[in-house]
Amino acid sequence: MMISCGLASMFYRINEKMREDKGKFMLPDYWQEHRSYYRSICDLISEVDETVSLITIVSIGNNLFFICVQLLNTMGYMETFTQAFYFWFSLIYLIIRTLAVSLYSADINEESKRPIEVLRAIPRESWCLELKRFTEEVQYDVVSLTGKKFFYLTRKLVLSVTGTIITYELVLIQFQQNDDISWTPC
Fold first, then answer.
1. How far apart are CA 178 and CA 87, in angstroms?
2. From the first residue on, what is the mean pLDDT of each consecutive set of 10 residues in the chain (186 residues)?
3. Is the four-CA dihedral 171, 174, 179, 182 of positive or negative sign?
4. Can you tell me the distance from the alpha carbon of 144 to that of 152, in angstroms, rounded to the nearest whole number?
5. What is the DSSP string of 65-81?
6. Are 144 and 152 in contact (CB under 8 A)?
């Protein structure tokens, strides 16, 4: 989470500087400087991703595995209040921790796409080749942490994984209800 916050804040700073100049006439040197800074942040994120991507994939995989195991255990009976409290507390903590890590990591991608708002508001008379390059980089490059390039940590991924886990829980509930019906004695 700390790495993600730091990297996203670098994009936030460049976005704030560009928002101050939104809609103003700027020379091509201004856009070259900002594109260069943007590119250096992207390169830094790429290097950090190379270093932490194995940790990322293990962390995300571990969290999702334990969420699914905990959800599977929701079908069991809790004998004491302490057991039930510990179980639900640990499940909620695990879900919040996983969501926090994922959403903080997805902020990198979100902040990397924000310059497009400013770039689209540029007056026609200040449009230049450097601005076109900058716009294409922001639109088409996927800047985010990855899990060994298997997946990109974006909000879209977080939502799809959340939907999958909810579907998994609903299927478990349905199978649990079917087992209760089919095993009752006559």
1. 24
2. 92 92 85 94 95 93 89 79 89 92 93 92 86 92 92 92 87 73 50
3. negative
4. 6
5. HHHHHHHHHTTSPP-SH
6. yes
